[in-house]
Design a protein that fits this description.
Chain B: Belongs to the binding-protein-dependent transport system permease family. The complex is a heterodimer. Chain A is mostly helical. Chain A contains 20 helices and two strands. The radius of gyration of chain A is 32 Å and the shape is flat. The chains are: A mainly alpha, B mainly alpha.
């Protein structure tokens, strides 16, 4: 733009003008490079320490190396077999299987393939490990002998499962994460009602998070309104009551709620002392969904109040007074004038609380009992106890997609203006 | 917001009902923090008040759980680990975050929105997912169950806070001050340390305190990627609450509440100082 102005004044020769433009470009490029260099260290750091772990998890959820890696001969032999042919594989496949079982037993790797196949069909583990114990003593031809050892080797469905899972990538963890199964014929259908776990858990996580969000809004809105309308000095003092819990460790707050809510806890003691409930009839407010909701509402309430407060602080009190002076009742004035202006705060607070709630793990694990567990607890269970990491990864990806989807929707609706930035 | 003199009875009722409701919410917010303080001095191994405590019998109170805490090698070890990890990751977060914020505040930076999205992603992604992903990735690199792994993980979780607070501080930054310094002959480095740094320091420090708190309080990632040797205070608390509840947990909790009071006061002090420096008077 500047080059144009200079040209209009006609004081520069074309040569000088070209040089000036080049200089400016160079200077701009240098500035750009400097900015990139400032950002680069952190960007690289986050890419390595944070984004690649997430990408690893995405990969884990479809990665399927166990069968093809630990049963390579069987995998190769099955490639030629037609799974829809209704005929058992031929002798070469059985010979390949025996070879894999013997090698797998020596290297202690057959258990990994067996565990993987067991996710798809129960009894596969005992079929493989049981046969592996005897496979070393067999002589060819193998087909008849194997079927004699375990009739499972005469079942075409078992071979179909092995063939299907010998592929290097699989969607079966996602199928499991959505409470579905692949039938031996390759069809994908929902599990019977009583066996569905994860969709129920996901649904419970979503509605309990919504409930917690609604509760924090109901409790937080009036308080933010009060804080925003009180004189600065008093408001700052009362703000400590919001900020102190905010700055206090999550585990501290969770353990104090255990002390408050448990059967022999403070609240029950007070109720018994007042004679409101019988000593043998104490309320069970913890180790169930109630415990999770109360504790998480307390923990997340500051995350609702802070964005609400920062938005309400910008609403001039004169607007309400103007509405009143024009004849509006206090309720009309509030609903028509104040509430609409506080919507950005409501949306920011609600989205923040909801996103935080939906990924919770620690608090439900400590106070949730059976009925107050979240999907995060399911992920942790498969990571640490059942060691079905593929399923844990798939559930994690589902949760991540949900959170990012909600976040994207929010940015779309309310702009990416960072109310989310705490204060 | 005093009640106007022309208020009718209904409005008067609402006015008081509203204030009482707010009072109840404030009690809800603060009472869990206050209740653990007396409970931590319980002489009995219970999580509830004994009759002696309610009668203010001095014999019902003791420092037993504090002695147990300070005498326990496990807890002292956990404090040491928490300290090492928190300090290292906070310093790293502050350096990386401040540099990035300086870059982000320049208008010449390309793909600003996308970069910002990546940089604050550790704040948006649920911790359980970060923990699972880091477990897979750090194990394959062989740095899980090590101080290095835990420090890197906590740094990643802490940097968004530094980036956000410093970017916010820089948004009100007057670049003419740097130009003035340059026109008076200061080299860019000199101007940076003598002009820019003092002005953004409050933002850097409060971002650093957020990062510090994140690391000190962080348990999800820690239980996934730290080994027994790196056991931090939150990990020890988590194990303590799950296995058997002893009032030692409450003694630790009380000390942590004291620490959060200290941190809160520091952050508030810094915020006010920064507002004064930037010429924003509190209204």
């Amino acid at each position: 733009m500047m080059a144009n102005t200079v040209e209009a004044e006609g004081q520069l020769t074309p040569d000088e003008q070209k040089r000036l433009t080049a200089d400016m470009h160079r200077s701009l490029r240098r500035k750009k490079i400097r900015a990139v260099f400032l950002v680069a260290p952190l960007l690289i750091f986050i890419m390595v320490t944070f984004v690649s772990p997430i990408a690893t998890m995405l990969f884990r959820s479809v990665d399927n190396p166990q069968v093809s890696e630990y049963m390579p001969n069987t995998t190769a032999a099955l490639a030629a077999w037609d799974a829809d042919s209704n005929e058992l594989p031929d002798e070469t496949t059985y010979a390949a299987l025996v070879e894999d079982l013997v090698v797998g037993r020596e290297n202690h790797t057959i258990g990994k393939a067996a565990t993987r196949l067991n996710y798809e069909k129960s009894q596969m583990r005992s079929l493989l490990t049981g046969t592996a114990r005897k496979a070393g003593r067999l002589d060819p031809p193998y087909k008849e002998q194997l079927i004699k050892i375990n009739a499972g080797w005469g079942d075409i469905d078992n071979w179909r499962v092995i063939k299907r899972e010998s592929a290097p990538y699989t969607l079966s963890y996602y199928i499991a994460a959505f409470d579905m199964e692949t039938t031996p014929s390759g069809e994908i259908k929902m599990l019977p009602e009583q066996q569905r776990v994860y969709l129920k858990m996901l649904w419970r996580t979503v509605w309990m998070s919504l409930l917690i969000t609604a509760l924090t809004l109901i409790l937080g809105y009036p308080v933010s309104y009060l804080l925003a309308s009180l004189p600065m000095g008093i408001a700052n003092t009362l703000m400590i009551l919001v900020l102190l819990p905010f700055w206090t460790s999550l585990l501290v707050r969770t353990s104090s709620w255990i002390a408050l809510l448990q059967g022999q806890g403070v609240i029950n003691d007070v109720l018994v002392w007042f004679g409101l409930v019988g000593d043998d009839n104490r309320l069970s407010m913890i180790y169930n969904a109630t415990g999770t909701v109360i504790t998480m509402t307390h923990i997340l309430l500051p995350f609702m109040i802070l964005p609400l407060y920062s938005v309400m602080k910008t609403i001039p009190p004169s607007y309400m007074r103007a509405a009143r002076s024009l004849g509006a009742t206090p309720f009309t004035a509030f609903f028509k004038v104040y509430l609409p202006q506080s919507v950005p705060g409501i949306s920011a607070g609600a989205i923040l609380v909801f996103i935080l709630a939906i990924g919770y793990y620690i608090t439900p694990a400590l106070v949730g009992g059976q009925t107050g567990q979240f999907i995060g607890n399911m992920i942790a269970y498969h990571m640490q106890s059942s060691l079905n990491w593929g399923l844990a990864a798939a559930l994690g990806v589902v949760l991540l997609a949900l959170v990012l989807g909600i976040y994207a929707l929010y940015s779309r609706l309310f702009g990416s203006n960072n109310q989310m930035t705490l204060r | 917001m005093a009640l106007p003199s022309y208020a009718g009875p209904l409005e008067t009722f609402w006015y008081y009902a509203f204030r009482i409701f707010c009072g109840v919410v404030f009690i809800f917010l603060i009472s869990p923090l206050l209740i653990i303080i007396p409970l931590s001095f319980n002489v009995e191994p219970y999580f509830s008040f004994t009759e002696g405590m309610l009668a203010f019998d001095p014999d019902a109170y003791s420092l037993r759980w504090y002695e147990e805490f300070f005498g326990s090698e496990r807890w002292m070890n956990a404090i040491q680990n928490t300290f090492i990890v928190a300090v290292c990751s906070t310093i790293l977060s502050m350096i990386l975050g401040t540099l990035a914020a300086l870059g982000l505040s320049r208008s010449e930076l390309p793909f600003k929105g996308m970069i910002m999205g990546f940089l604050i992603s550790p704040m948006i992604v649920p911790l359980i997912i970060s923990a699972a992903g880091m477990f897979f990735f750090y194990s394959s690199l062989g740095i899980s169950q090590s101080y290095l792994g835990l420090i890197l993980a906590h740094t990643a979780l802490g940097t968004p806070f530094v980036v956000i607070t410093v970017t916010a501080t820089l948004s009100g930054f007057d670049y003419n001050l740097v130009r003035a310094a340059a026109s008076l002959g200061a080299t860019p480095t000199y101007a940076f340390f003598k002009v820019t740094v003092p002005l953004i320091l409050t933002g850097v420090i409060s971002g650093g305190l957020f990062a510090l708190m994140t690391s000190v309080d962080e348990v999800v990632v820690a239980i996934f990627i730290a080994g027994a040797e790196q056991r931090t205070v939150p990990m020890q608390m988590w194990a303590g609450i799950r296995e058997q509840i002893s009032p030692t947990i409450l003694a630790v909790a009380t000390l942590l509440v004291c620490m959060s009071i200290l941190l809160l006061s520091t952050v508030e002090y810094l915020r006010r100082r920064s507002e004064t420096i930037r010429g924003i008077t509190p209204h």
